[in-house]
Amino acid sequence: MNPFKILRVTQHATHKEIIQAVGQAMRTRQYSAQTIARAQKLLLDPASRACQYFLHCIDLTDIKNDMMKDMTGICEQIEQQHAPRNVPLQYLAEIEMKNDF
Amino acid sequence: MARKKKKIDTILNRAHKLFDAQNYLLAEKEFEKARKKAPSRDIDEKLDICREKNRSEKGKLLVKKGYTAIKNNALQDAISCFTQAQQLMDDPGLSEKIKELDQQIQVGSILDTAGNAEESGDYVTAAALYEQIWQKTGQQHFCIRSGVCHVKAGNEDHAIHIFQNAKTLDDTGCYYYGFAMAKTGQYPEAITQWEKINTPINALIPQKIQVLSLAFSTLYHTLEKGTDIETIRSRAKELKTIARTLDQSVLADHFDTLYHYCSIALLEIWWEQEDYEKIADLLEQATAFNTLEFIVLKAKTCYHLAEKNETFLYPMVQSWFTAIFYQHPVEKYSDNPEKQQQIRQQLIRLAEQRIDSHTGSPTVRQAAALFAVEKKLITDMETMYRESRSDTPRICTPFYAAITGRSDEILSDIRKNRDFFKDPEHYLETGGLYSRTWESLYALKTGDVDKAHALIEQIIEDNASLDEFVEYTVARVWLAYGQACLERGEKKFLPFFSSTPALFETAPSIEQRFADHLDKYDGDRLAEYETVLKWLYEKRPSPPVARAFSAIMATLAVRRFNKNQFNDQQLAAMLKKALDINPENQFARYNLQLTLIDIQKDDMLDALYKNKMGKAADIVLESEYPEMEAFFFSEAEDMLDMLCSTIPEKGFLTIMLHRLRDACESVDETHYLVEKINDKLTNPGKGM
């Protein structure tokens, strides 16, 4: 079970938000009271919450940002070097084959 | 009148003859003559047939003439012939032919105009005319020609439209289609088209590189919009391959980055969707995912998958300790090392629970074994660094150490802290797990001896220098592999024990365990183990080896005796030898005693029944085994009964009884049998 999904809270949710989320979850009745109570317990205890975070959350933003930064640089360089405004594209007439009509 | 009739008959006869000979042209003339003279229904019918036949013949001739005209390129004459023929005969193909020829005349005219337009550089007109011809004829090369002229005219959009409608494209078509796409900024698509060109064209390479570079830019901007990541990823992969074929390694790397970025974006999407199988597949595909962040992702992905599928337990364990000892999640939640430790312990328990939730199949057992190895190792490393108060504790799994190049640093720390380890084996094994041979040692410790051996052979083949940890691993693996070969009944097992004496010298605890194992061994490979131990004992006659050798030797000797392969003497000799090697071998001692007693009993019986009763008594008197006396008297009593019942001659019986009594007396004069024999001697009639 993913307590963050059960209670519909983010990984950064405060204790107050978790408790409010418990009330909301009880009202919507999507999960049993037992499941909701278990999710609450897992998220209110810091060590358990850390474990749940480990199991259910991923954060690849930093890697993606670094890569995006690299790619932006590459892209700018390419556009400067190869853009048609700088190097116009001309068709290669020699490629044309003779066709018998 | 008769003459007139005769004349008509003659005409009709001739007409019929011609009709029968299928000469309908002359037959028609004769029938007409006859009708003028004497009209009749029969003549009319015959005339109709002749006319019909003659029309058809004429038509056929005209068709033939038409085709001759086509051959002579006189298309107009051909049309005239076919048109006339059409009036004479009912052939639907003729109108099609006329239409075709008509079109051909028209097309020829348009084609000439188009060719002239193209030559004069009026590509717009040429393109339109070629398109017109294509629509009229449906011939693909006019479509391509039209597209080419549109490109030359600078109407790339129109060209693309034309090429899209072409059923097939030749190399020219592919090039111009790709070019039109490149001109309209569709760089990735342009490259795809150019890849379809079959003939290698060197002039195209620089243009391809330019367009390929711009394709990167296009894909990047598409990515920025955040749409259709899977398509961008697949395009990036395709273009990376093309860049490689063009020897554009830098460009290929750019596409690889793009591909990798898309993969990560997909991982995020799939994680949200809890589609862990797709994540696991993707993580398996590339070495780029061997970085810490992805090891963490792999650990948790496999954790979720292992809930229902035990095959994910092993990969989960492989990455679990690396994942929980780095970055995640402790640093995010606490700076307090104690709390961090608490979180780690909880995560270790969670993984253990996941393993325990499955039944003990070999897969589960292997995962559990790996978990135990890693848990102990990590605990040891933690303790070692804590006790050494290291400022830079490098607590990580061997796998992570290997992929991040930290193994040597960790090995150096292990060497510096040698005193921390409880014995040489502990020290060498910990070092071995971080050495070049770590994978082999892992395989060994998780029960896969063959894999361990295969990995070790690779290391040895590399011819690199062997440090103490590698040497230890090699010897450990060889010892285990040698035992495995031996147990499997393979012949060449002895060479694998060549490094065992040195291993035992370095790590006596292993020798102790080896000896303990063989001390209790009762399997089918006693002879093979005896061979191994004989060799080992020659090289290293240590107490544990002696103990094992002696035990195996004694057990094997007894087993051979029980199978009637050994007699008492041979058994006794082997047991004595076993006792010489290990005087504390109680099994050998006990069996030797039983054997020696048996031998003495046999000797004594032999003497007794050869009437060498004094010798029999001497064997008993010289024996160190008290049970010999009881055996002697029991046999002597049997003999007394036998003598009394079988010897009728009194004098001879008396001699024999005297001998028996003397022998008994010499063993124990107080034994009741002595008195019994004396009684027989003094009262010979009693019971004799």
What does this structure look like?
The complex is a heterodimer of chains A (101) and B (688). Chain A has five helices and no strands. Helices cover 63% and strands 0% of the residues of chain A. In chain A, helix 3 (33-44) crosses helix 4 (46-56). Chain A has a domain at 3-56. The longest helix of chain B is centred in the first third of the chain and has 31 residues, at 41-71. Chain B is built from 35 helices and no strands. The mean pLDDT of chain B is 89. Among the domains of chain B are: 2-88, Serine Threonine Protein Phosphatase 5, Tetratricopeptide repeat (Alpha Horseshoe); 365-504, no CATH class; 507-606, no CATH class; 610-688, no CATH class. The radius of gyration of chain B is 54 Å and the shape is elongated. The interface between A and B is large, with 38 and 60 residues.
Global shape of chain A: elongated
Measured by DSSP, the beta-strand proportion of chain B falls in under 5%
Q: What would you report as the Rg of chain A, rounded to the nearest angstrom?
A: 28 Å
H/E topology pattern of chain A = HHHHH
Helical content class of chain B: over 70%
Mean pLDDT of chain B, to the nearest integer, reads: 89
Q: Give the percentage of residues in beta strands of chain A.
A: under 5%
The overall strand count of chain A is: 0
- Which pair of chains has the greatest number of interface residues, and how are they split between the two chains? A-B, 38 and 60 residues
Radius of gyration of chain B: 54 Å
What ranges of chain A have pLDDT less than 50 throughout 5 or more consecutive residues?
A: none
Cα distance, first to last residue of chain B?
Answer: 175 Å
| Helical amount of chain A | 55-70%
Q: How many strands appear in the DSSP assignment of chain B?
A: 0
**What is the average of the pLDDT values of chain A?**
87
Which quaternary structure do these chains form? Answer: heterodimer
Gap from first CA to last CA of chain A: 71 Å
Q: Could you list the spans of chain B in which at least 5 consecutive residues all have pLDDT below 50?
A: none
